[in-house]
Amino acid sequence: MKKQNKTDKPRVVTTKTVTTMKKTGEKITMLTAYDYLVAKNLDRVGIDIILVGDSLGNVVHGYDTTLPVTMDDMIYHAKAVKGAVKNALIVVDMPFMSFQASLDDAVRNAGRIMKEVGVGAVKLEGGAYLSEIVRHLVRIGIPVMGHLGLTPQAINKFGTYEVRAQDRAEADELIRDAKALEKAGVFAIILEKIPSALAKRVTAAVSVPTIGIGAGPHCDGQVLVVYDMLGLTEEFRPRFVRRYEELGETMRNAFTRYIRDVRGKKFPGREESY
């Protein structure tokens, strides 16, 4: 990967950029954002893709699952992210029941995201049965990212967040799903919480980039939830998350010091007063 120097202009990432990165072997970086400030800082450091994920239901709204998240929720948060981003490709999750019921629903809701927010793509959870929807969205100019493996919107079907496709039948089905989504026109596929060896097979089997979360090192890129990798979701410690900071503890320490200073009449001081 070429090292960016101070005179280089930041790279504007598009779906074409992402597909080219697979061909050249350049790893794709992707993180979530749900607000202006996080998105601004991700964009500043050169993240390739920002996902406005329906995981906001868990980490922002405090829901047990992603199922209660609405289209209005997604558009609200996507607008906040869009206002901060100049270079990264923004992908927005289509929430539960915004596309599953009918092709008309999928077109209407994906169109809302693209038209009202102006992002680069939408993401749909599911396999080959979505081929018609994906094909039509791509045909009318809406880029689509796929999502296979553990799909949180189907948690009531799975009944568990355990690793998916550990047996041969489900693994073979996942590969067929990946090929079907590729044929339908997705520009990339998220692979969530599947065996590393299977992710390697899928990555070799399709021409579009794979982006892993709990799928090992062989994918073309990686994605994490920002709140997880920053150590803000302290009770949630899955094996696949590397915690780069422990900001939950840092925040509490700062809040405690503030409370102490106010109660001790040490804040505000002369330097903070007019």
Largest sheet at a glance? 8 strands, parallel, barrel
Structural class: alpha/beta
Note poorly predicted spans: none
Count of helix runs: 11
Global Rg:
20 Å
| Strand residue content | 5-15%
Q: For the residues shown, what is the average pLDDT?
A: 96
Task: Write the CATH homologous superfamily of the largest domain.
Answer: Phosphoenolpyruvate-binding domains
Q: How many β-strands, per DSSP? A: 8
At the first level of CATH, what is the class of the largest domain? Answer: Alpha Beta
Percent in helix: 40-55%
Helix and strand succession? Answer: HEHEHHEHEHEHHEHEEHH
CATH topology label of the largest domain: TIM Barrel
Total separate domains: 2
Q: Biggest sheet, strands in spatial order?
A: 1-2-3-4-5-6-7-8
Summary, kept brief:
The chain has 274 residues and is α/β, with parallel strands linked by helices. It is built from 11 helices and 8 strands.
Task: Lay out the secondary structure.
Layout: H1 15-24, E1 28-32, H2 36-44, E2 49-52, H3 56-59, H4 71-82, E3 89-93, H5 103-117, E4 121-123, H6 131-139, E5 144-149, H7 155-158, H8 168-184, E6 188-192, H9 196-205, E7 210-213, E8 221-224, H10 226-229, H11 247-263
Parallel strand pairs: 1-2, 1-8, 2-3, 3-4, 4-5, 5-6, 6-7, 7-8
